[in-house]
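Hi again,

Forgot to attach this to my earlier email, sorry! This is the prediction with iron/sulfur cluster bound. I've pasted everything inline since the attachment limit keeps bouncing my files.
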Amino acid sequence: MTETRERSKEVQIWFGPQHPGITGNMSVQTWLDGDTLTRGITHVGYLHRAFEKLMERRLYIQSFPIVCRICVPEPDTNEWLLASALEELSGLDREVPEKARWIRTLVLEMSRLGAMLMVLGGHAGSMGLGPAPQWMIALRDLVLDRFEELTGGRVYHMYIVYGGVRRDLPEGFAERMEQTLKTIESKLPLIDDVIFGSAVFRKRAMGVGVVPREWAFEMGISGPVIRAMGIPKDVRKDEPYEKYAELDFDVVTEEGSDIFARAMVRRREIQQSIDLIRQILARMPKEGPYCAELPNMLEWTIPVGQTYVRAESSRGEMGYYVVTDGSKKLRRVHVRGPSYVHGVSLLERLIPGTNIADLAPLMVSLQVCPPEIER
Amino acid sequence: MSLKHVLQPFNAWVQAFSKPYTIPMKDTMRPGADRYRGWHINDVEKCVGCGTCADICQNAAIDMVPVKDPVKGDSGLRPKIDYGRCCWCALCVDVCTTGSLGMSNEYTWVEKDPEKCRYTPGVDAKPWDGSEKGWRQEEGFSLIVKDRVPMPMLDPKERIKTWAEVVVGYSVEEARKEAARCVSCGLCVAACPAHMHIPDYIGAIRDGDFEKALDFIYDNNPMPEMCGKVCTRRCEGVCSVGIQGEPLAIRWLKRFATEQFEDFAKVLHPEVKRVGEGKKVAVVGGGPSGVTVAYYLAVRGFEVTIYEALPQLGGATFFGIPKYRFPMPSLEKQVDLLKKAGVKIVTDHRVEKDEFRRLLEENDALFFGTGLMKPYKLGVPGEDLEGVIYALDLLRDHHVGKKVEVGESVVVVGGGNVAIDASRVSRRLGAEVTIAYRRRREDMPADDEEIEDAEAEGIELVTQSIPLRVEKLENGKLDFIWGPAEMVPPDRPGGRPKPKLIEGVENHLQVDRVIVAIGQKGEFEWMPEEVAEKVVTSRGWVEVDETGMTQWPGIFAGGDLVNSTADAISAIADGLKAVEGIQQFTLEGLSVSKS
Ligand SMILES: Cc1cc2nc3c(=O)[nH]c(=O)nc-3n(C[C@H](O)[C@H](O)[C@H](O)COP(=O)(O)OP(=O)(O)OC[C@H]3O[C@@H](n4cnc5c(N)ncnc54)[C@H](O)[C@@H]3O)c2cc1C
Ligand code: SF4
Ligand code: SF4
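Structure tokens for the complex follow:
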């Protein structure tokens, strides 16, 4: 067979950008031989809003409502990263009050919890398992209720700000949070039944989408994807920030490096987040300021400097490389999200040989978030 | 894989019989959380239209639109919000200088007409107006800095032993920090009689460019070091940051900028056309209004001569304001620039009737700003006794270098700045000082800070006290006899409560001097009758038109005898007005008419 004839048998199919199975607005151009994918090229740019560039034209305080939009399901990591980078460069980090540090840790875990509930639903949904995603979204909504009363908004919280957080915990927050956690916990066994206990899920997730262990470090893989290879990498442990060093938790790992293992890491991390939120609320200082005294935000300048800060989002390592030039505006921000690695380089490498029906579950398991790719 | 894994998922059916935990429709219509960021509300009476909310909005969702006539301290504008742009970040609420802006916890609103999705909260009525819940400013979080950088001052116990300046002045670091508090709303510019470029010079100070700051300052104030030390600072009274916090130290910042330079001529870059070449202008009276006219006309090429009766220019800021507030070197620096600008200065020269007539002949225009030089009398028996003196005379004599004595104890009658100055000068001359004022403390026209400074220096304040008479005692001292007053409602609505003597009670105070400081009026004995007749009103004021010109074409006037506010910056503002008026008048080819 000549190469030309081989090619002619291939069918080209666009997966996305308008496809319910795709994780957000991106598309994968695929080539098929039968129902097996031979090649895939990712295309992004459908929701490029130039976040990084916008921030070079905004006051620091005006950048703060921008970054949350880099990740819809989990905005808070972005808020924290920008805040902590600028705090470090301005010296404001020395003034962040203790209570703010605890509240921030709380928010970051609530945010991971909310995101993981959604993704786990996505795991099931991408295989056509109907009810589970709806339940998971409903459970996530309960977390959003708590976000709403804490931050004033359900989806975009705009709450972690330079110097601390924007408001104190409302009266009775801990009790209501506990109630929410209890409700979520009470539903988890059922979720286990319909997802991890499902023959369909097991068959389609086990041994599918295996990421070879050798790629872990050469590609910069992180989050549930690397932990599902049995590698205990987690920024919260490796380079603890805010209050993580004072909290009691173990890094969750699974073996197998397949879709199932990744889903299981998430399932266990849901429980981990619930436990962490309980620990945090138990240790939350009752009194004290929740934000440092800020300079006039309309005129705030930050000395020349640069830094890289990182945090563990539900998807993996998020990092911000930030450069300041002594002016009132950022000189450069580079957002390093796990989705670029997982959703572009890794995905394209995994596609050949994958069954077309498994592409959506694969993307969900890599937790690809396009806005983070095209900042 | 086992049978279990085939059957287990059917547990989902259990849910069909349990209470749903997805949220039913009726619950989604619940009100937003207590601090929900919903549609905006604004207390438009509290809002001053500073526009800070619009400045911080990164989506440019806020337009400041006119809704009422601007008054001092209120731009008359109010924020109008475009919900096609708003991202509900609530930065506008958190930055709002007055705390008037908030967000309700309402989040549903259906409107067919997209135009209606822009509204001015508090002006365009909405169902959520008056909503108690939603996002509001909260204690413990502020995007602006409410506390002022404190001004270092000499210790009151030490300072009364000297004539040294009480206010020490900001360091570079302090000044830049204070300047960085400004939100650049510009309400101050409207409130300043001279409309100085306040946010601009504050911005330049913040950025460390003091030369640029001075350029902005000198653009419309030729005595800024004086104003930087003693101005009545109406600007600070309207500063939007001052509504919930302390106003910017605008006066101290101006002072800081001028203090950075020894010789203003070396650093100023006035960019003006020398349009007045060949035109001659005479200025009578060397107070702030006269200095303003002289300086700005001179830089525009006019030939200006300024005549002053006293040995130094400055007017009341020289002979009245004490040196611990406004020291001589500061005044000399500003006068020096006047000379360098080419103004001819004739001091120790009181213009009299004939000379005035001659000056009218010889010049293209004439300005007089001769101030209020004649003190009001108390009008009580015993006022003619030796030892009853007038604050204005005391201060002038002291400042021109005559020896003055006030004895061991004095009472100063009055509640304005002149009274406070006379008291603090007397205190430094070694006397125990009491101030007797007719009304309440809050009614005193003197600057609050000045009153506090005086009290810190051990000066006693007796309010609601009405002088009855003065008697000479056998020990050579004076008996100042006063009666207490009660406050009665004003005659007309909106007026001030009035003091009314409580009959039958007499208090005595033994003093060496009674110093009268209850105001001053104009003095026109030097003015030719034919001029006075035309320009001076029956009540002793001078009336001018919007160009600063009197009823006599070519004669301009300004300062205390024209305006009702009687402070230095108003005199400067009058001067600025006359500069434009004189330029217009002289360049139209008209000479001073002798009508
Ligand atoms: C004791 C005192 C304290 C004050 N404190 C403050 C303060 O803290 N802040 C503030 O803003 N304002 C203060 N003022 C008011 C302020 O000084 C005046 O409003 C301002 O100086 C008025 O300026 P003017 O141009 O009207 O002239 P003036 O300052 O009144 O000066 C008029 C000048 O004209 C001269 N003159 C009069 N007749 C003749 C003539 N025929 N020929 C030649 N020269 C003549 C006089 O000698 C005098 O120097 C104070 C005033 C006094 C008296
Ligand atoms: S910041 Fe507040 S006071 Fe100023 S214009 Fe806006 S709403 Fe009004
Ligand atoms: S909430 Fe944010 S986006 Fe909306 S008007 Fe206020 S500052 Fe602008």
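Residues 591-595 of chain B have pLDDT under 50 and may be disordered. Residues B 56-57, 59, 61-62, 81, 86-92 surround iron/sulfur cluster (ligand 3) (CB under 6 Å).

That should be everything now.

G.
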